[in-house]
Specification:
The chain is 55% helix and 10% strand. The protein has 107 residues and is mainly alpha-helical. It has one domain. The structure holds zinc ion.
């Protein structure tokens, strides 16, 4: 279920907490962004409690999850790799811009 709201962490357009996806109203029709959140949503659906715990506690897990989701968003043309790398800096991952860029390069 998608909920339009401005009650979203500062600097973010949307976030998923199964069974909901919260999106700022002005991003409600951003298809690539919704797909980004759906990547998280589908992962959370079957392993929700463990997923959230790992996401909050582990930088490595959080980075891997965001790289998967931003990769999907980049594929759909919703965002550039540089924009995604810049966005990754907001997730307390302990990495700099160049490390974020490198993490987003497909292997
Ligand atoms: Zn994300």
């Amino acid at each position: 279920m998608i909920i339009s709201t401005n009650l979203i962490f500062r600097g973010f357009a949307a976030f998923s907490l199964w069974p909901f996806i919260f999106v700022r109203p002005e991003y409600r029709n951003d298809k690539a962004l919704i797909e980004h959140e759906l990547v998280h949503y589908r992962e959370q659906a079957w392993i929700m409690p463990v997923w959230v715990l790992f996401y909050l506690v582990s930088r490595k897990f959080r980075l891997a999850a965001e790289v998967r989701a931003y990769t999907r968003e980049i594929e759909l043309g919703g965002i550039t790799r540089e924009q995604a790398a810049h966005a990754l800096l907001g997730y307390r991952l302990g990495i700099n811009f160049n490390q974020a860029l490198r993490a987003l390069i497909p292997v």
